[in-house]
């Protein structure tokens, strides 16, 4: 069966520090991968989307970036965090070529102080 | 601009009653619509998908309707239980392998 992992689960970082969040999927090949951010009491905002290794689409301009160095690995990064980057970060995957069900990871709670 | 509105932020109901959640959208033409459940501090979990040519879909105590003329989906939880307490998100197909999510409705079922 397929599983999705995210780490760390929680993170507290000072403003201006770098960020690296990792997401890995097991049990499937060539998934579409997604990074979302959820602010308190808000809906999910799509940040990045990838259909394959090295292929990244950005939804909104911001100081975050994403990379997909391996088929089932998706990384969210920042060189300098802002207060507004605080939130709940979720990674999700779907079967490659399908727009159906998205499977979400457990999320990372990021607090920027 | 495109917009997804879920009827209210919070819904409090008595155990055994039916909860009805609304998802309205504008400036979308989704081929399908999905509903997810999210518990506090967890990632959303898929519940149901309904396609544009389907009027109704059921899964156990859950029922979803989809009216593309009204641009609305209704999500029903029948015979509600305290374990149904969670936030429910609707999500629309954007047609490019992506979904747009509503802000969610938090349901609290009182015993």
Describe this structure in a few short sentences:
The complex is a heterodimer of chains A (113) and B (111). Chain A is mostly beta strands. Chain A has no helices and eleven strands.
Structure explained in plain terms:
The complex is a heterodimer of chains A (113) and B (111). Chain A has 113 residues and is mostly beta strands. Chain A has strands at residues 3-7, 10-13, 19-26, 32-38, 44-52, 55-58, 64-70, 73-78, 87-94, 103-104, 108-112. In chain A, strands 2, 4, 5, 6, 9, 10 and 11 form a 7-stranded mixed β-sheet that branches. Chain A has a 4-stranded antiparallel β-sheet with strand order 1-3-8-7, with no helix packed on it. The relative contact order of chain A is 0.33. Chain B is 0% helix and 58% strand. Chain B has strands at residues 3-6, 10-14, 19-26, 32-38, 45-51, 56-59, 62-67, 72-77, 86-93, 99-101, 105-110. In chain B, the strands form 2 sheets. In chain B, strands 2, 4, 5, 9, 10 and 11 form a 6-stranded mixed β-sheet that branches. In chain B, strands 1-3-8-7-6 form a 5-stranded antiparallel β-sheet, with no helix packed on it.
What are the low-pLDDT stretches of chain A, counting only 5+ consecutive residues below 50?
Answer: none
Helix segment count of chain B?
0
Main beta sheet of chain B, described?
6 strands, mixed
How confident overall, as mean pLDDT of chain B? Answer: 93
Helix and strand succession of chain B?
Answer: EEEEEEEEEEE
Largest sheet geometry of chain A: 7 strands, mixed
- The secondary-structure class of chain A comes to mainly beta
Count the DSSP helices of chain A: 0
Largest binding interface between chains: A-B, 24 and 24 residues
Features:
heterodimer; A: 113 residues; mainly beta; seven-stranded mixed beta sheet; four-stranded antiparallel beta sheet; 11 strands; 0% helix; 58% strand; globular; B: 111 residues; six-stranded mixed beta sheet; five-stranded antiparallel beta sheet
């Amino acid at each position: 069966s397929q599983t999705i992992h995210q780490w760390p689960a929680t993170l507290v970082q000072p403003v201006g520090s770098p960020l690296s969040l990792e997401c890995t999927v097991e049990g499937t090949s060539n998934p579409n991968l997604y990074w979302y951010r959820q602010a308190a009491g808000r809906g999910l905002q799509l940040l990045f989307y990838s259909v394959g290794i090295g292929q990244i689409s950005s939804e909104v301009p911001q100081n975050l970036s994403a990379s997909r160095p391996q088929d089932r690995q998706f990384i969210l990064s920042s060189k300098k965090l802002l207060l507004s980057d605080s939130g709940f970060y979720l990674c999700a995957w779907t079967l490659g070529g399908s727009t159906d069900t998205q499977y979400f990871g457990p999320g990372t709670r990021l607090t920027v102080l | 601009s495109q917009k997804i509105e879920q009827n209210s932020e919070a819904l409090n109901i008595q155990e055994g009653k039916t909860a009805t959640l609304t998802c309205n959208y504008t400036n979308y033409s989704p081929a399908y619509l999905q509903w997810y459940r999210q518990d506090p501090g967890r990632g959303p979990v898929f519940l149901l998908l309904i396609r544009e040519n389907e009027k109704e879909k059921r899964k156990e105590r859950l029922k979803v309707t989809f009216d593309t003329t009204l641009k609305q989906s209704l999500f029903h939880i029948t015979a509600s239980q305290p374990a149904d307490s969670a936030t429910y998100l609707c999500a629309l197909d954007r047609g490019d392998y992506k979904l747009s999510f509503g802000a969610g409705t938090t349901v609290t079922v009182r015993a």
